[in-house]
Amino acid sequence: GDVYDExxxxxxxxxxxxxxxxxxxxxxxxxxxxxISEDLALGAFISxxxxxxxxxxxxxxxxxxxxxxxxxxxxxxxxxxxxxxxxNILKDSKDYANSLSPVYDFIIVKDDNTFxxxxxxxxxxxxxxxxxxxxxxWDDVKVKYIDDKGVMxxxxxxxxxxxxxTGEVVAEVTHFSKYGVFQIASSTNTxxxxxxxxxxxxxxxxxxxxxxxxxxxxxxxxxGSTSTSQTSTTTNTNSGSTNxxxxxxxxLPDTATNSFDLLALGLLLISLGGIVLFVRRKNSLxxx
Length: 288
Fold this sequence. Notes:
It is a peptidoglycan-anchor. Its main location: secreted. Keywords: Cell wall, Membrane, Peptidoglycan-anchor, Secreted, Signal, Transmembrane, Transmembrane helix. It comes from Neobacillus bataviensis LMG 21833. Helix content is about 10%, strand content about 25%. It has a seven-stranded mixed beta sheet, with no helix packed on it. It contains two helices and 13 strands. The chain has helices at about 50-55, 255-270, and strands at about 5-10, 15-20, 30, 40-45, 60-65, 70-75, 85-90, 105-110, 125-130, 140-145, 160-165, 170-175, 180-185. Residues about 1-5 and about 190-288 have low confidence and may be disordered. With about 290 residues, it is mostly beta strands.
């Protein structure tokens, strides 16, 4: 049920001082803020006075926070026993290309003003509820991580489940930052998770990234396997401008067609007295 103690609402922030003293049918602690405006930042201050006792009774107890079309679920044992903490959820005001949900910033602050950022041993589940009618290809639905500069990262976020009827997308994360749901088409030839790639110095005006160009070769995976490439492209439509951010990527393994073309080019250059050096590198997986 609802677990409220004391509330304070301003024009921008909804603050709630909550105690963990009621559980739902599953034995978890549920804080329901579904009725507050999605645009309000949420600050849920949670007392840990009963935490030690709770964990002795149920070591797997979770805290579930509902806000608008978002549900955050995290294990209680990922937090310190001797400190209260606050979960802050802020909606990013920026517009992101290909987004299916708002982008949210997640922050956990302890009493000593330090942050809980990494929790590899205690993954947190994020459930986004999107509008199914906006999805044209469910295979392209991804949860993406946005860094502090507003740049979409290539980190592969594990998706637990997708409900195409209700629009529920459940993902698992091991660190807090900004996250949102996007529809990003994978490369037809490689199955890459990038939205689009282009050759060095070439701007593709017809690409879905509004003409972004990357420094470095195109990237992806062989045999259609899913992998994260090292070329990152994001479009920021804030203030009417389009910005591109790119990092150096690795070359793809040559397909049979590319090998034939390169061989023909090599024979031509040899006939002209030139020398062609082929350098081949494998894709690497970048995990942030």
